[in-house]
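Here comes a specimen:
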Amino acid sequence: MRLSKRIIPTAVTVATLAISTQAMADTWKMALGDAAGGTQYELGTTFADLLEEKTDGEIRVDLFPNGQLGSEQDTVNNASMGLLDLSVLAINNITPFSPTVGVMTLPYVIRSPEDARTLTQGEIGEELTENTIRDAGVRILAWAYSGCRRLTNSSHPVAEPSDLEGLVIRVPKNEIMISSYQSWGVNPNPLAWSETFTALQQGVVDGQDNPYITIDAMKFYEVQNHVTDGCYVFSLEPLIISESKFQGLGPELQQTVLEAGQEATQQSYDYLLDTEASIKKKLVEEHGMEITEPANDEQQWIEMATQIWPQFYDSIGGKEKLDQALAALGRDPAPAE
């Protein structure tokens, strides 16, 4: 009688199997505008890990930070055409494709992480997701919460709008954010994100605004000295997926992708709450940045900037859309035109 032999895989066999399994996995590409270390990267890696875990390795996600796959607006175009799977980008860079999203970027609508979570995870967030599918051919899967956009500059402390005189401030190519600065008497310089650090370094612009987490991740402290601790816009960074990619998935896999997005969103919110204070402290103590509080609890900034709201009622889908957002936050309706 012949005794059967148990086959013990050699190291070469194991390696071959690993390579074969990896090759069989469906690999998705995710673009990120920011560098590693920021909330975009945190959201992206969390989503990638969750999706790989939930699909038992059948889907892997490769991340391409620092704008390697093009500008943030380019990634929206590419995802809408099915040329890119996923992208994490600043909300202001999806607004040109789906203007109703602009309700989230109107100055002083969102004033805290709690406000941001209320709007993105409620009925308004659901409606904006449907609108981006309709308008831009992409679906919002998750939200990164980066925090309030803080003004930085290389010249002097800024406590009130008049202190901006003489400063050239970089803003994204977003009409609402441009108009916000114009309301404070400044004619800002709209620049692509990929050009911002170099422009600050070369003195083409004096300042910019971004959350503390982004200021740290992008090392803006190397070219900026002063921070104004205001909150005119809360930085939200949606994770989008090509809608054609999403519709090509089976129902179970679609649900898995949505669940990974929901869990990654919660992780991003917790990450902001856990890290922002320590990052702010590090910018001061380790990198020598000087933080200035806005004068009079930011009242003059608020009064001047909210005057631009009526200019954008039509683009965001009507005044009632803003009133809906304000009501969800427990605030009074917006002023009439």
Residues 18-328 form a domain with the D-Maltodextrin-Binding Protein; domain 2 fold (CATH 3.40.190.170). Residues 1-23 have pLDDT under 50 and may be disordered. The first helix runs from residue 11 to 24. The radius of gyration is 22 Å.
